[in-house]
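Entry for the shared binder. Reason: the reviewer on the internal report wants the predicted structure included alongside the sequence.
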Amino acid sequence: MFYEPKHGHGLPHNPFNAVIAPRPIGWIATRGADGRDNLAPYSFFNAVAYTPPQVMFASTSAKPDRDGTKDSVANIRETGVFCVNVVEFAARDVMNQSSGPWPREVDEFDHAGIARAECSVIAASRVAGAPAALECEMRQIIQLDGAANFIVVGEVVGVHLRDDCMVDGQFDITRFQPLARCGYRDYAVVRDVFSLSRPGD
C-alpha cells in the first residue's frame, strides 16, 4: 500500500501513529501563573541532546479555553518551566485518566488520585512515585505547520531517579517497565532489553 497524506489513506483509522512506534511517553507536569497544577501525557516526546541535556514534546491539539493550544503549553508560556515524569506500567490507568480533555481548572493530580511532590529546582509539581522525573526550563516553543502544532524544547536542570531503579550504578528500566505508546489505542511495555556494542567500541 502507498498513500499521500494530503490525499488521505482510505483506512478506518490513521496508520501514522502505528508506523512510528513505540514512542516514549512524557507525562508533563506544569503549573500556571495562577498556581494551578496540570498533568498530561504526550507521546510525541523524546530526549534530543546530551550537553546540555534537552528534551522535547509536541502538543498537537487545542482546547477552547486555551487560545489555540492545550493547558501544558499555555502554562509553560506563562512560567517557562515544566517537569517530565517517566510512566511505568503500574501507572497506566492513572496516566490514562490524566489524559482527558478536562477544563483548565481541573487539577489532574487530584482528579486521578496521583501523589505529587514539589520539584527541587523549578516551581512545579512532579509525580511523587515516578521512576524518574526531569525538571526542565523551557528554551523554545516552536510553532509547526498546521493548527495547534507546537514543539516545546526544555533544558533538564534537575533529575530525580527512584532509588529502587538504580542497580550497580545504572538506571535499570526493567525495574519499573516503561510504558510506550503505539498506534490507535495500543500501548507497549518494556520488559526485556539486550545490548549491542557499536563497531569500534
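Summary line for the report: Residues 82 and 179 are 20 Å apart (CA to CA).
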